Amino acid sequence: MNWERLLSSRRFGMEEYHTENRHDRTEYQRDYDRLIFSSPFRRLQNKTQVFPLPGSVFVHNRLTHSLEVSSVGR
Questions:
Q1: pTM given for the model
Q2: Neighbour tally for 51: CB within 10 Å
Q3: How far is residue 62's CA from residue 48's CA, in Å, rounded to a whole number?
Q4: Could you report the per-residue pLDDT of 9-38, keeping only the tens digit for each?
Q5: How far apart are CA 40 and CA 45, in angstroms?
Q6: How many domains does the chain have?
Q7: Are 63 and 41 in contact (CB under 8 A)?
Q8: Quick one: CA dihedral 38, 40, 43, 49, positive or negative?
């Protein structure tokens, strides 16, 4: 067993990964992911955006509305 390899700082997450220039995603994709996985964005699911019409069962909240608008905007 190689203890140097097993106890490396990279394995424990102590190495600075965010300083590496990663080319697998664009800056836009990274910003989009930060937004989608953020707590304030998730809190939008508890806010009603569009009230249903009589006889309709579809209720949109601000989260679904924001996702639909962003997909149309692409």
A1: 0.47
A2: 8
A3: 6
A4: 666 666 565 555 567 888 888 898 898 888
A5: 10
A6: 1
A7: yes
A8: negative
